[in-house]
Amino acid sequence: MRISELSRVSGVPVATVKFYLRERLLPEGRLTSPNQAQYDDTHVQRLRLIRALVGVGGLSLAAVREVLTQIDEPTGLTLDLLGTAHRVVAPDLPDDVDLTPVLGLLRRWGWNACADVVGNDDESRIDDALAALAVALGGLDDAGFEVDLPKLDRYAEAMMQVARTEISGLPVESATAAVRYVVLGTVLIEPVLLALRRLAQREASAARFPLPGP
Amino acid sequence: MRISELSRVSGVPVATVKFYLRERLLPEGRLTSPNQAQYDDTHVQRLRLIRALVGVGGLSLAAVREVLTQIDEPTGLTLDLLGTAHRVVAPDLPDDVDLTPVLGLLRRWGWNACADVVGNDDESRIDDALAALAVALGGLDDAGFEVDLPKLDRYAEAMMQVARTEISGLPVESATAAVRYVVLGTVLIEPVLLALRRLAQREASAARFPLPGP
Question: What is the reported pTM?
């Protein structure tokens, strides 16, 4: 198909398609004349992925590029894929987070694959998901909001159930499918989970504190 | 204590304390002379609550006022408290969200207390938590990211476990304690849960795709 058709099918304006081509986020088409190229279904899929990453995912162009690099040069390590996905969508975190309390929690839960990452890297790169947990727990502390260990344990257990379901459904037939699943799953499922938690709170609250009958 | 002492103990600058007094977010002290008032521990607690709501919670002054009104004029209905908490911390949502698909899900899960809220109000006020779920699910749809029903069921189940733990721990001895718990719990626990999910994904991924040994 020509670029106008590619634009129509993918829903991405021609100018934007040309921009992605210039930025090398989208591979060039097959030249059929000096001024004309043919595109195929892989271009359509790629454009849809970029659009989802930029649009609903809210990723920057740099983040999109990082994700696409993972797709184009797959390492075969899903852990790397998750790492990239989490890094690109994670909020900016301070560099000097103390991970010691979080490490204790990970060991407590037997999450040793995560715990082993820390300090395991020559550049001593802080793992972003660990830092995010440390910052979040620090926020509770600052506000004087106490969450005891048994409650944290249950949070961890519930999130492990969520994660197991998600990882067991991870498509392995292609790196593109996997990165789509991981990145979109990370970005787009978060608001679903938070909304579900709020509704579940309402529901559990209604069970504990029934409204007076009519 | 005098206002300078109140400022020192609460960690809130005197100018800010005066601002909260003018805005009537903080009750006046007991006048001991035309220009001097005495404050007590209830003022300290109140200032800490305001600080947590504004600071870590990131609430606007209007949202803080709404929460404080709930504390000062408690209705005794925890459902109202949760509603206020969720409304003030929820992102802005469009008004014209179609709740039909979400209602189907709620009935499927037997979350009837939530489902019954819809259309039950003369002003046909859309419940924010319901709208948030509808918008989040709409985002998945737009991105062509399919989440099948069994997976949604597991998400709902995991979040219900989280919510049950939270609601069973809700303090009932005072409205202040309850609103602190609900609002801070809503705002400050969300990043904890999201960070835990990411770590759990790494952990589950390492279990499914073990790294090659040394």
Answer: 0.75
